[in-house]
Every structure is written in C-alpha cells, then in structure tokens.
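Researcher: We plan to redesign the surface later, but first we want a full-length starting point. Tokens attached.
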C-alpha cells in the first residue's frame, strides 16, 4: 500500500537492475542478471575440497560459576525495579 501511494505521488519510475559480471562489465539483461546471480550463489554455497572436520569427542570444561541458591535468587529479584526493562 505504501509503495503504491508513493508511486502515485512521485509518478511511476521503473526500477533498473544492473550488475557487474566477472570481467567487470555491466550486465543489464534480465536473463543475464539471473544467470550471474545463480553463478555467484553457486560459487559461494558449493564449496569444493571440503575436509571432514567433525569432532570425535566433545570436551567440556567445568563451570567456574557456582550454582546460586533459591535464597540468592529471591534476593536478587526483590532488588529489581518494577515495570522497568532489565536491558541487555
């Protein structure tokens, strides 16, 4: 709705898509643009020569922070202000 109102106020302006190909030349043709985008996504997403890097074992460290008791939790929540966002 916003776009149609904005187009009505400003008048219709056609949107032009221009891309650069591998050589650096501008591509304007719709078919060529789709082909270029397909090739770039194919190169980006299809990684060749990928090494299998899966871990055989997962090592975890012990927690440095001690568990808080119910009393500590209750005292901390009572100190919070009402109707105020806690932030990050």
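Model: Full-length starting sequence:
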């Amino acid at each position: 709705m916003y776009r149609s109102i904005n187009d009505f106020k400003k008048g219709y302006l056609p949107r032009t898509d221009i891309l650069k190909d591998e050589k650096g030349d501008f591509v304007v043709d719709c078919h060529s643009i789709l082909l270029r985008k397909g090739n770039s996504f194919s190169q980006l997403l299809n990684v060749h020569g990928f090494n299998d890097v899966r871990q055989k074992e997962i090592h975890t460290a012990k927690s440095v922070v001690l568990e808080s008791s119910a009393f500590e939790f209750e005292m901390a929540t009572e100190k919070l202000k009402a109707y105020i966002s806690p932030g990050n």
